[in-house]
Amino acid sequence: MPISFCRLPCGARSRCVFVFWHSCNRVLTGAGLTGKASLLGAWGLPLSGELCEDPRLFVDGISSRDLNQGSLGNCWFVAACSCLATESSLWKKVIPDHGGQEWDPKRPEDYAGIFHFRFCRFGAWLDVVIDDRLPTINGQLIFCHSAEHREFWCSLLEKAYA
Known about the structure:
By secondary structure, the protein is of the alpha+beta class. It has one domain (about 5-160). It is built from 6 helices and 8 strands; from the N terminus they run ααβββαααβββββα. The protein has a 4-stranded antiparallel β-sheet with strand order 1-2-6-7. Strands 3-8 form a two-stranded antiparallel ribbon. β6 and β7 form a beta hairpin.
């Protein structure tokens, strides 16, 4: 029988983080128009204070007005997230135990640096776990990000979907 990811002890969750990601500190983009991959920036960690003070998964709940497209030009993803944000029962399936995944400054020992998302693919729900590193240029998020600079649900969701 499956065990809820968020109910695992923090130590068990931290074993899920892949060490090789931490050795790579550069963000590599696709080939684009030049036909060559290019380095854009670095991975930023929301909780470390690199991107903001007091980061949150959600600030004042989830809203379709939270989203900014970023430089990838993926308006289809932003539109899908906007629709998702309008239906509480659906986004709670995609971002399970959202309260348990929130950063809690009073309990830093509970933070494992990973997030759990679920996507429905061909009628079956697929669990995806990612770390909290996000691609940046000069300390600014490159791709989908929230209008509220302390909120990271859409950036993390985009990373999980990628």
